[in-house]
Amino acid sequence: MLRYILKRILATVPVVLTVAVLVFCLLRLTPGDPALILAGDAATETQLAQIREHMGLDRSLATQFMLWGGQVLQGDLGTSLHSGTPVTAMIGSRVGPSLALALSTILLSTLIAVPLGVFSAWRRGTRADRAVMAFSVLGFSVPIFVTGYALILLFAMKLGWLPVQGYKSPSAGLVAFGTHLLLPTIALSTGFVALIARIARSSVLEVMGEDFIRTARAKGITERAVMMAHALRNAAVPIITVIGVSIALLISGVVVTESVFNLPGLGRLVVESVLARDYPLIQGLILLFSLVYIGVNLTIDVLYSVFDPRIRY
Amino acid sequence: MAYLNAERLETRYGLGRIGAALACVAAMAWAPAQAETLTVVMASKLTVLDPVLTASHQTRNHAYMIYDTLLATDADNKIQPQMADKWEISADGKTYTFTLRDGLKWHDGTPVKAEDCVASIQRWAQSDKTGRQLMPLVASMDVVDDKTFKIVLTAPADVLAALGKPSGLPSFMMPKRVAQTPVAQAITDYTGSGPFKFVQKEFQPGVKTVYEKNTDYVPRKEAPSWTAGGKVVNVDRVEWVAMADPMTTVNALLGGEVDYIETVPFDLVPMVKSSPDLTLRILDKMGYQPMYRFNQLNAPFDNKLVRQAAMYAVGQDDILKAQVGDPEFFKTCGAVFGCNLPYSSNTRADMIVPSNVEKAKALLKEAKYDGAPVVILHATDIAMASAIPVVMAQQLRQAGFNVQLQAMDFMTMLSRRANRDVPAKGGWSIFVTTWHVSEIMDPLRNYGVSANGEKAWFGWPTVPQVEALRDKFLVAATEPERKQIAEQLQDVMLDEGVAITLGQIETAAAYSKKLSGVVESPAPVFWNIKKASE
Amino acid sequence: MSTSIHSIAGGAGITPAIRKRPRSALVRTLSTWPVMAALAMLAVIVLAAMSANLLGLADPMSINPMERLKGISAEHWFGTDAYGRDVLSRVIHGARISLMIGAGTAIAALIPGLVLGVIAGYFRAADMVIMRIMDGIMSVPSILLAIALVAVTGASLLTVLIAIAVPEFPRVVRLVRGLILSLRDEPYVEAAISLGTPTRVLMMRHLVPNTVAPLIVQGTFIFASAMLSEAIMSFLGVGMPPEFPSWGNVIAEGRMYFQVRPELILLPGLFLALTVLSVNMLGDAMRDALDPKMARRV
């Protein structure tokens, strides 16, 4: 196992390298001139050429890549083409809201979904089961921005219980942090509750069908104890897996929530920087994301083999 | 904050009057003592901080906060002194002498000197269109003493209008060391002499910009008028917040989370109007002019009759109605240089204002149009012009054109626009863009007045008369002469389809009734505003 | 993009037993009334989509600014949008595009996903390489891919489809690979190998059939999530060309008017939600039916 983990970590290098090259080329070959957005509609060709030269965009692709690669290896992700702020600083200042949103969504979704899923499994086949499942599916049938607008309309505008938008970091007060994060978390959670609830339900059901559960029942243990002590523990694996995958998903899934609720996070930053062709920023962000995906996938694969001994690498 | 409102606390939670009051006081005491802050949502996010490098309106608005200008334009469209105390023009019109007023200081405490102004103008002139046209006429710019400098020309030209224009790269004054940054490089030192200071450590590009009052600023004595006059700051801080979602922006204003929105999306105006706590006002009476250009290098718009057919087919009313909706905010206008402005004209307006499909069809027949595809570039991620190409496509199709509407993001559109090839090889036939009216109101500033073939602005028309007339305008001595030249220019430009206007659009700002003293201006300005306390 | 929330629902952590499925369980599950209702709903929507042109609706692309943002009326059952176009017509014509995106993405993700997943699951050497490539692909944000594709080939149904499908298929690969990994060590596979069964036959006859059930289920989830992703791409301004009446476009265009004319979002949103709901219920039902452990329980 350890050897496998080490091999995977070593394999990170070629993956990140490939992603870096791929994205680098994709960006440079996509039409769009960062000098143009910097200087605007009204700039002359000479001005643009000068700006491009200053940005280093007139050099060959290979040279540009080498220069960037060299910088990265020294821990310098470069500077944003448009604002002149270092990429690491920009990412650092915007990681907070995304992380807060992601963690609170996973927490809330899990807290709601697991009991729902277990309940559904327990009452399998009844109206309650079907209602719960249908209801949770409704949550992710509606586009997130619609859910978001509806929540704002109800809780912020009509009832006035919560703020409309914005992000307050925990250092500005926990109450403010909480109230500003609540609606976006609910909006984003509506999708994940369904996902986690259904996995919980089906994995509990699977476990309940196992022979050892039959044995436990035969021993005379109450249904509740069967659920809690035996079924849940074994059903935990897929649930944990899906939570782990959700973390990776959330990073890409928060774009809309961040736009609707005006949270200055990484999701919006990706969209904005791609639309603006801010190459160093996009490259830095994608490097970060690839490391996260690799880390999460590695963890999942390790978890697979830890909990299911049949799986060997 | 709406949701901490005492009334709400009382009624929602049944706290009783005293309880509610105590709760509010406790909440306020708990929060740190607040400086008087104005929270503003601007129309787009601020990332670039160099107002010479880019003509973007956001950067221009930022510059008005922390920099001051030598001259400025007032509400009567007259040039007024701002940093300058007075100026003198020599009898032959070739020498301009400017004297700075007293007490001007940079944010770091050092005094403003004439050499700073000269350096700033020189950097600006390398980038600004009017500046670039002026420079060949400038023999020298001399510093006479610490407060005086001269601009000496080889032929008379209107230096004042160039230096005092409110938009399209206004001329902001910066310290000499900053102004010596090469023009292709962004400045990194944000010292200015304006009524606000830039709080760099709180700047989050694309998210939030913070300004604080410059307590050493010496405002002029006159009342503020557009970007001219006395700039007295009555708040301690101004925070610009960027918001991606227009609905959330308006809701935030309604909920009291922000004080001021620069541009209310047209269709959300009713929401603002129905609130008793908000003021809706058109602060920028000049507005915007959408316009389009043909690619005259390739078929079918290399043919003058086909161009005219298109111009007849396109009608302003439907386009503006689709883009804006409420007639309160738009008007049809056939003047290339803007309506109700010094160089307005109605010559050939009948070609471009109404939609005349019959005439278009007739012209197409005459031109023997063979169905060559018309590719219209459609940028889908910018709000201000996104409906226009769609309506144009329909109008052109009704006249018999074979139209391909190609959707792409704005950056891709900018790149495609530079492609001179035929549409099949990635070229284009029509592109649409929007200018602020102050940027098109005379032949020198207007980018549409460009028809020198390969070297022209996108579209590359070849109409030597346009170039000649513009050069004549530059050196015209009297206003009536200039007006006449402008009229001739409109005639030629529309006849040849060099640049076609699509009317005029005004946008409204909305702000809390707690704010007073909001100044009408072509660019949003934040001096003079007072905020009543809660 | 949040596409994969839904697609994960199908596959993560489920390893079905490998016995022959009794067909009656499938039919049995599918005859319960909620599932029948879902099938019926889907059938109606598909039918409407296919016959959109024959229903005598207004032209979905015809702009009429004078009529913009008029509410529900006898002439316009769903009202008009910001360009004065008839919303009912756009919703029904849009069904075709949205369903094509859903189905197209599902197919585009499932087939390469199956192929690569089987190879990765079975051949240890290929596993490392393929899975690391999948890691890499997942890191590229869909929006970048969407813009790049649009820029190269112009915005169209195909580019949107590819932009949505590409980040989706690594998950299918992962799912199939996981299945194959646990199947690989089953006794009957060992037996087949020791009998000298050629690899190709082994794969086609023993391994692949056992992936079909979870794949179908996964497919239904991808279908649903693709339609929602399309709405998000339109929201960001990089989706289908705006004149086209896809549900994503109609909803994204209507979002500005949520508090002024909520029906512009709610009505197409209802159709989208019903379709997604039906597809998901079918997926659930199929999983319940095709998973033999469940089948035995019923």
Provide a descriptive summary of the structure in words:
The complex is a heterotrimer of chains A (313), B (534) and C (298). Chain A has 313 residues and is mainly alpha-helical. In chain A, 78% of the residues lie in helices and 0% in strands. Chain A has helices at 2-29, 34-39, 45-55, 61-73, 87-122, 127-141, 144-158, 174-208, 211-218, 223-253, 255-260, 266-275, 279-307. Chain B has 534 residues and is of the alpha+beta class. In chain B, the strands form seven sheets. Chain B has a seven-stranded mixed β-sheet. Chain B has a four-stranded antiparallel β-sheet with strand order 4-5-7-6, covered by helices on one side. Chain B has a three-stranded antiparallel β-sheet with strand order 17-13-18, with no helix packed on it. In chain B, a hairpin with a 2-residue loop joins strand 6 (138-145) and strand 7. The N and C termini of chain B lie close together (10 Å). By secondary structure, chain C is mainly alpha-helical. Chain C has twelve helices and no strands. Residues 1-13 and 293-298 of chain C have low confidence and may be disordered. Classes of the chains: A mainly alpha (313), B alpha+beta (534), C mainly alpha (298). Chains in contact: A-B, A-C, B-C. The interface between A and C is large, with 70 and 65 residues.
